Amino acid sequence: MSLLVTGSIGIDTVKTPYGISENCLGGSAIYFSMAASFFSPVRLIGVIGADCPFDLAKVFTDRDVDLTGLEIRNNSKTFRWKGSYYSTMNEAITDEVKLNVLAEAPPTVPAEYKDSKFVFLANTAPVLQNQLLEQMESPVFVAADTMNCWIHGHRDDLESLLKKIDCLIINEDEARMLAASSNLIRAGEKILEMGPGVVIIKKGESGSMMCETGGERFILPSYPAAEVKDPTGAGDSFAGALMGYLASRRGGSKTDFGSLKTAIVYGTVAASFAIAEFSLQGLTSISKADIEGRFKTLQKLTQF
Amino acid sequence: MSLLVTGSIGIDTVKTPYGISENCLGGSAIYFSMAASFFSPVRLIGVIGADCPFDLAKVFTDRDVDLTGLEIRNNSKTFRWKGSYYSTMNEAITDEVKLNVLAEAPPTVPAEYKDSKFVFLANTAPVLQNQLLEQMESPVFVAADTMNCWIHGHRDDLESLLKKIDCLIINEDEARMLAASSNLIRAGEKILEMGPGVVIIKKGESGSMMCETGGERFILPSYPAAEVKDPTGAGDSFAGALMGYLASRRGGSKTDFGSLKTAIVYGTVAASFAIAEFSLQGLTSISKADIEGRFKTLQKLTQF
Fold this sequence. Notes:
2 copies of one chain form a homodimer. Chain A is α/β, with parallel strands linked by helices.
């Protein structure tokens, strides 16, 4: 079934203990689309300026990523982010951010995208996430991400969004903040009460956990990656493979718990490849068979 | 098969966001024995002063814990520890420590303990761990714990110990320190090269991982505990149930990887009970059936 993503497209400069990657392609919609495209066609919505040095059609060559929703604004500049990771690389320190075109009006949803069934609203102001979601005719499964500044400063918009989505995919610190609970199990349960039927909490190197309103729970460690060169895009790659897998199932209108578990395993595997190299290289250098291989390895590593 | 533990017996005062527990029974040998006794008879070696207000025979009533190796020194004082846990309770802050009897000569191994087959050397100076181990006649499986001050200040003794033991059970920060590697997978592999056939790395709320020289790996999340009142003793309870299970198997002279995996699951479950209440209450208030119940729950939560 059709899968749509709205999110950022950016020019990133990332420094880690393994080196520096200057002016490379980044952004949530890019990582998401790259990971999702192993499983399902993707419809991308995003906006860039005339200065963007990347030909996205070329970036997604041989992948089924529809760029009808890509808007290029000739008088605007592309979003730029500079960040650094230190020691255990668990957290990005933002050195510089230029919102540029992301501070302007958001892109609109093309008419041919409005029937999308699976929708991922990457992290941005919840008022925009709400506006984008309202343009969808009959989505089957909507997931969203958010972050600390929206939890603190735009709580009403976020609470309104949470009532309309099926799944929140969120970092552990942000889950604690949103739920005002230091215990993650409690935090997950409190967020379920805010609206979404499923909450997936990402814990970085420590894996992820999922809870849903029926009382089912799932916990999965991260893939034990010996190579971590650049954690940028891990969360969006996770969400991309997860949503791509859900959208790929035959007649998959129902997101049963078993499928959600499998989707989280694929998300975890995609994230493990994304962080192994700088920028998108970890995802562009692999095949679907590599993903299936690590799926089986993760199964072997965790089952008893 | 026979299981022996040598470790501390202490009088603890612990402060957490849930309250304070003053002058309660603690120490690695106590938590270990309590958790191990659900699975196997335990032989305890430890030393206390005349001031110790606890009757250990009463503490272990109805549990098969042999106290022949308990030494009471009339002119000495019992080990005392005061610590606090804050917010996420991932780390204990030591407020006060009085080594007292632990700074004196270590206890000796009673003649009737020397044939012990499974041995756990709880955290102490590696020179003492070496001396205790030398008194064993033909141990089958020896596991040890250690900590930062021995890694930094007593490296030679520790390296000598690592060549003689089968399994090191260690915290993640200490694993990184010992191996001089920020990546935990690499750290585990480097520690294997130092001697032990099995390395188990405890990651607190994030679970644990195990690696062994044959190349097998296992990763397990922690039990998702909604109640965490006092994390003291979590690691020793983990080791206790783990070693207790291994020692309990019929004719279990071989510690195959499947058994080690099951042992880690039991260790994880025992730790989840230990941290639910102050001091030993989390372990003394449950039955073997409670442990089996959480074993099955953890299976359901993690299998896909």
